[in-house]
Design brief:
By secondary structure, the chain is mainly beta. It has two helices and seven strands. The strands form two sheets. Strands 5-1-4-6-7 form a five-stranded mixed beta sheet.
Length: 154
């Protein structure tokens, strides 16, 4: 392990939705963007709050760590201490696509498996999602309460 990384890194990240944060964001003109993933800062999310259904909402997914950045903040650090949630959370959807290359420097879900990323859904099932999935469809899986149907051909 490299100097400066305390704790045990992990290969998975919690889904915090589509906004880029697990807390309420203040947008222009006083608009608030509430978090919409399966995890939220300082608050547990109940199954009953997964309004899109447990089988249609990401719980956790493989986290992308750029090649040559293993054990380096902010991509990869301890996942159990709670001090650096950026290390163990990810967003998905428009603006947050899946990583397609090992050297992608984005804060994204992603995998070193060729062409896919594995996700655990809130119902406990594990499914792979193609790296080239439409960002809009990806966001439907990441958002627990958008009320929209996921396209069959995502």
């Amino acid at each position: 392990m490299k100097e400066g990384v305390a704790g045990v890194p992990g290969d998975y990240a919690a889904n915090i939705g589509t906004t880029g944060a697990d807390y309420v964001l203040q947008a222009a003109y006083g608009i608030e963007l509430p978090p919409n993933g399966a995890f939220q800062l300082m608050r547990g999310i109940r199954f009953s709050e997964m309004r899109d259904g447990l089988s249609h909402t990401f719980l956790v997914g493989e986290k992308h760590v750029p090649q040559n950045f293993m054990f380096q903040f902010p991509w990869d650090c301890g996942i159990y201490d709670g001090h650096n949630p950026v290390c163990n959370t990810r967003c998905a959807g428009p603006g947050f696509p899946l990583a397609n290359q090992r050297n992608d420097l984005g804060w994204k879900f992603g995998s070193y498996h060729p062409g896919i990323c594995q996700f655990v859904f809130c119902d406990g099932s594990v499914r792979s999602v193609a790296n080239g999935v439409n960002e809009f469809a990806l966001g439907l899986f990441a958002n627990r309460e958008d009320g929209q149907t996921i396209p069959v051909d995502y």
